[in-house]
Design goal:
The protein is an alpha+beta fold. The protein has four helices and five strands; from the N terminus they run E-H-H-E-H-E-E-H-E. The chain has one domain: Bit1, CATH 3.40.1490. Helix content is 43%, strand content 24%.
């Protein structure tokens, strides 16, 4: 049986510069988590299964702006990790097409930590 820290994880990085309400941030993180999970189910079913067995761990982090999210996205893609950059539909607080949250994973925790270690908890 694997130790808790061996299970895959998911990171959700919220743009700080948008000053989203807590409810809006939660919904945008949900969009990212669902999209990443669906991608994992299709492309990385073994990681998806281990992630679910380990409690589907997620961490919500703060990113300064879109430039940082795009940099993290590039690093995660280069590492072969599942990613999703959420684009808002514009129905509530922000204009349509605004990128709000980057989801990374599920993936090995150490792979996510290597990309997100400098970020603060949201």
């Amino acid at each position: 049986m694997s130790r808790e820290h061996d299970y895959p994880s998911m990171a959700l990085i919220v743009r700080k510069d948008l000053k989203l309400s807590n409810g809006k941030a939660a919904v945008q993180c949900s969009h990212a988590a669902v999209s990443c999970a669906l991608l994992a189910k299709k492309h990385e079913p073994r990681i998806m299964e281990r992630w679910l067995q380990g409690g589907a761990r997620k961490i919500c982090l703060s990113g300064d702006d879109l430039e940082l999210l795009q940099s993290l996205l590039s690093k995660a893609k280069s590492a072969g990790l599942i990613t999703n950059l959420v684009k808002d539909a514009g129905h509530t607080e922000i204009p349509a097409g605004t990128f709000t949250v980057l989801g990374i994973g599920p993936a090995p925790k150490q792979s996510i930590d290597a990309i997100t270690a400098d970020l603060e908890i949201y």
